[in-house]
Design a protein that fits this description.
By secondary structure, the protein is α/β, with parallel strands linked by helices. It has five helices and 13 strands. Strand 11 and strand 12 (226-231) form a beta hairpin.
């Protein structure tokens, strides 16, 4: 009796194996990949910085396993690893199509010499950074990235309506702030009461510029009760009041 049960169980096991093995083989790409191949690749992308050729190259090595065995997570990871790709969405469309949607990174500013800041606030490196024009230039320690972005936004709002605009922000290792304006002028702010000092400077700047043909080249606001300005074409920087105690 026991032998008959054993033989019956063994027969059922063999039968299930014969049924499941082809299914498992197809799903894992062990065989029959050419019977259900992926024939078409549909790509939805902006193609500003990422080309169709790059996306095709990132997916091609995964397509040989066939439709069922194609691992979309691995395909997604390969595409997401391309420079300029922020996010990739991948799905299979029966019976033979792979659909890919690529969202490119949108740079907000340059960070240092060879990196960019995305609109999401993340740092990334990409080829051709040095050729990108029109982005503000920010710099500082990497762990102060959020502070530098916030400082840029706040100082830009203060200059709004003044006819001047902020083109760069630098934070030194010692914590001192320096602004670069679109005109090329520099504004040294130090590390204390920076927004208050900048607001006072912006308030009085129209009166200081009255009657002058050009703007200023550099403003040093690191004084306890005033600032110093070097005007365009001036040989010496006249001080605009206050003590010369730097803070």
């Amino acid at each position: 009796m026991n032998n008959r049960l054993i033989l019956k169980s063994l027969a059922w096991g063999i039968a299930l194996t014969l049924v499941l093995l082809p299914v498992i083989g197809v799903l894992n790409g062990w065989f029959a990949a050419d019977r259900w191949p992926v024939r078409y690749l549909k790509v939805d992308a902006e193609f500003n910085h990422v080309s169709a050729e790059q996306i095709r190259a990132a997916t091609s090595s995964h397509l040989g396993t066939g439709f069922f065995a194609l691992d979309i997570d691995r395909v997604r990871a390969s595409i997401a690893g391309l420079p300029w790709v922020e996010r990739a969405e991948v799905r299979k469309l029966w019976p033979d199509t792979l659909q890919v949607r690529v969202v490119e990174r949108e740079p907000f500013a340059r960070w240092g010499e060879n990196r960019l800041i995305g609109r999401d606030g993340a740092l990334f490196a990409a080829p051709g950074v040095e050729s990108i024009q029109g982005l503000p230039r920010l710099s500082g320690p990497d762990d102060r990235l959020d502070d530098v972005i916030d400082f840029y936004n706040r100082s830009s709002r203060l200059f709004s309506g003044s006819g001047l605009s902020v083109n760069g922000v630098a934070l030194s290792d010692r914590g001192g702030w320096t602004l670069t304006l679109a005109s090329g002028a520099e504004v040294a702010l130090g590390h204390e009461a920076t927004m208050e000092r900048l607001q006072r400077f912006i308030d009085v700047l129209p009166r200081l510029q009255a009657g002058r043909n050009g703007g200023f080249e550099r403003a040093d606001l690191r004084y306890s009760n005033g600032f110093a300005i070097r005007w365009q074409g001036a040989n010496a920087p006249p001080s605009a009041g206050g003590k010369e105690k730097r803070t």
